[in-house]
Amino acid sequence: MSEAGATSAVVEALRRHPRLGGQIVHVERLPGVPAAFGGIDPPLPAGLAAALAGGGAERLWSHQTEGIAALHRGEHVLVTTPTASGKSLVFHLPVLVEAARGGPGRALFLYPLKALGQDQRGKLEELAASAGIALDCAIYDGDTAPAVRARLRRNPPRVLITNPDMLHLG
């Protein structure tokens, strides 16, 4: 069965469901659109480009390259796309480029949930390691020991990951 056929079968099963069927008020199938890719100017450092390619991202989506270009121009950027669409790379890549060139830049990443911050830290550190980039990254949340919190306030890392509650508290 094709993907479209499988999706239609699931929707029909839900429509026939005694409790759920009445909650479906509209179904619409939108046609696919071709993927849109873009380029970064200046290009990413070779190690970072190789690490992305090794992870399956040989090319960046246009929303990623447009966001990164806007950041390079000093603009504020808001990226709203579905889950797993590569939003994080829009702000991870400029930080990794800065770290690769040894620049002084730092980043504060705010996530609404501790678990999301932990997950994003792992992905960021994995990409940095794959690219051969030394990245000082720390989490400042409710699980961070008070002594570590004090040290992070005195000597912040290149990347500090926290949440709004801890930012306010700390």
Describe the structure.
There is one protein chain. The protein has 170 residues and is mainly α. The chain is 48% helix and 9% strand. The protein has seven helices and five strands, in the order αβαβααβαβαβα. It has helices at 3-16, 46-54, 62-72, 87-100, 114-131, 146-154, 164-169; strands at 37-38, 60-61, 107-110, 137-140, 159-162. The strands form two sheets. Strands 3-5-4 form a three-stranded parallel β-sheet, sandwiched between helices. The protein has a two-stranded antiparallel ribbon with strand order 1-2. The chain is globular, with a radius of gyration of 21 Å. The chain starts with a helix and ends with a helix.
- Number of contiguous helices: 7
Radius of gyration: 21 Å
- SSE series: HEHEHHEHEHEH
Helix content: 40-55%
The averaged pLDDT comes out at: 92
Structural class: mainly alpha
Report the end-to-end length measured between terminal Cα atoms. 54 Å
Strand portion: 5-15%
**Would you report the number of β strands?**
5
Low-confidence stretches: none
How would a textbook summarize the main sheet?
Answer: 3 strands, parallel
Global outline: globular
Order of strands across the widest beta sheet? Answer: 3-5-4
